[in-house]
């Protein structure tokens, strides 16, 4: 079995290139391809689609060189009765595996999310308990997301809440954002595969290197914010705060690494951050409420 070490303190940061190097072994521990199983709960499959868009390596090379993909609902050719057979075999095998959870777990509406005639909650209980590590892919798995927003009836739980309430002590990692950034997932998997440890995590079990800065901290419109030069409508130059930007209260490195080869990101494209990586996403009103009690440094928000 893998022994999971949670990196803490001043652990050296391993670069993506170091982890990708085919034979390199940054921690000097040797590595082998782990089994990987990917489950989907209440989700739109957007995080799987995002995962396929990893740019540092082709997804096929990543999955075949660095992992043994046991099952993925969208990628595997297994269907029907083959699926429960594969999953039961894995759970009974005593072989180590990594479990990725995409989407929330609808515990009060089990029939909302079934796999092979069993609620997804039963599969998560079975497979998470024996996994070496569980990774929550995207905001729905990390904090409930769309399935848990006000007014829904599913009783959706995040992966962490689900594990905690059932006494499952498998280490977990949260990779919020809607969708999850592919670099976050591939880096975290590679880190675990190559060094047998998780990257350093914050109190919300997110890798610090991705989530320690707010969108606001690195925003290309920050100079406009300091000058109190606020846009009045979408498309205008200026800081988007008064259009409801949630950059000051949302932690994610999307501004630094962007999307699609860093060709763009929300704020650069002219749209306020809607807080997709935040624990309260999605709010009934997606934009920052002027009644939000959390402080926005240096700005007194006007009542709308
Ligand atoms: S409020 Fe939004 S647009 Fe303005 S500087 Fe902060 S992140 Fe950028
Ligand atoms: S700017 Fe905000 S909404 Fe856009 S990806 Fe980043 S955290 Fe999500």
CATH architecture of the largest domain: 3-Layer(aba) Sandwich
Low-confidence stretches: 1-10, 297-304
Radius of gyration: 20 Å
- Count of individual domains: 2
Instruction: Give the SSE string.
Output: EHEHHEHEEEEHEHHEHEHEHHH
> How confident is the prediction overall: mean pLDDT?
88
Distance between the termini: 56 Å
Number of strands: 11
Give the count of helical stretches. Answer: 12
- CATH names the topology of the largest domain as Rossmann fold
Task: Report helical residue fraction.
Answer: 25-40%
Q: Mind telling me the CATH class of the largest domain?
A: Alpha Beta
> Any idea what the CATH superfamily of the largest domain is called?
NADH:ubiquinone oxidoreductase-like, 20kDa subunit
Instruction: Identify the strand order in the major beta sheet.
Output: 3-2-4-8-10
Bound molecules: iron/sulfur cluster
Computed structural class: alpha/beta
Q: What is the percentage of strand-forming residues? A: 5-15%
Q: What does the largest sheet look like?
A: 5 strands, parallel
Approximate shape? globular
